[in-house]
Sequence to fold (403 residues):
Amino acid sequence: MSFASLGLSAPLLKAIQDQGYTKPTPIQKQSIPVILSQKDVLAGAQTGTGKTAGFTLPLLEMLSQNKRSGHSVRALILTPTRELAAQVGESVATYGKYLPFRSSVIFGGVSINPQIKQLQAGIDIVIATPGRLLDHMGQKTIDLKNIEFLILDEADRMLDMGFINDIKKILAVLPKKRQNLLFSATFSDDIKRLADSLLNAPALIEVAKRNTTSNNIKQTVHPVDRERKKELLVHLIKEGDWKQILVFTRTKHGANKLMAQLEKDGITAAAIHGNKSQNARTKALADFKSGEIRVLVATDIAARGIDIDQLPHVVNFELPNVPEDYVHRIGRTGRAGNGGEAISLVCIDEHDYLKNIEKLIKQEIEKTTIKEFTPDPFIKAEPIQQRSNQRNNRNRPKSATRR
Fold:
C-alpha cells in the first residue's frame, strides 16, 4: 500500500517523498482513511509506530479540502510535555511545507510574548501543553471558538501528569461540533472515561496489544548491587563502545548526579528533567541527536517527545515504580523497524518492581549476570524512597502541573 492510495493530495505526497518514506506504517494505514472519513478516533499505539504522522497527515489534508478565511485557530493538538509539543510541531511543519497553513507551538518555560504575537498574526494549527494554553485563554490571547479538530496525543501521560482538570477547562470552551482524535499508548479506566465523555461513536484503532513491547527490542536485566550501578554502566558503555545511550533515572536529583559521575569518567553526558530550562532541555536533546554527547540521562516525564529513529540503547539505571513507564521508556529504541537494546540494571531493592513489569508485559526478561559485577548475596533489600507520584497527584495546585 502506498501513501497515494490513502487519499492524500499531491502537496502532502511530495512532503512525504522528501522525507524518504514510501510505505505507511500500520497505524498510518488504519488511521488516515478513518480520520479522512470525519469520524472520531480512539487509537492505541505504542511510541515509535508513526502515530504522529498518522494524525498530522489527515489533519492537513482535511484543512486543505475545506479552506476557510479568517484568523481563528482551526485545529488544536494537546500534548503532555514541551518536548512532545515541539516534536509534533516539527511534524506539522515538515508535512505541511507545501501547504499555506500556519502553525504555532506554545508551551511554558519560555516567554509568552512571542507566542502572543504569533497568535495575533493568525494561526491555523496550535500545538500546546495544557498549562500554557490555559494561560493564553486566561489572557484572552487565543480564540478557540472555531476549532474544527481536537487531538489529544499521549492522553494517558496527560492524565498521569494531573492534567485532567485542565483538559476539562479547555473542552468547556470548544465548539460542540468538531472532530476528536484521542491517541494513547495504554487504555486505563481513566482513559476509557475520558474517551466516553469526549468521543462520538469513535472508530477504535489498535495496532499493538496494550502494554506490550516491540519485538525489535532485545531486553536484558543485569543484576547488580545498588552501589555498583554507575560502575557497571560505565563498563557497558566502554566495553561495548556504545555511542548513543538514553539512560533513565527515577528522580531529577538522580539524573544530575549520574550525569556528573559519567562526565568524571570521561563519558560526555547531559541531563534533562523538569527543573531544567526549556533552552537547556532543547540544547541537551540536540547535542544528543548530533552525537556531541554520548549519554542523555532523563526522567520519565522529560523523555516524552524524544524521537530518534535509530537510537540503539536504552538503559534503565533505576526501574520505574509504575510498570507502564517501563514500556514507554524502552519504546524509545527499536523504532521505525530498527533493532534496539534495552538494558535494566536491577538491584535487590527493585525485585518487586521487576516482577510487576514482567507481569504487565506478560514475559520474563532475560537475566544476565556479568561476572565481575555479581551481586553480594548478603546485601539486604532497602525501601526505595518514592518520588512524588503524578498518578496520585491529580488535584495538585495548578502551578505544579504547568509544563
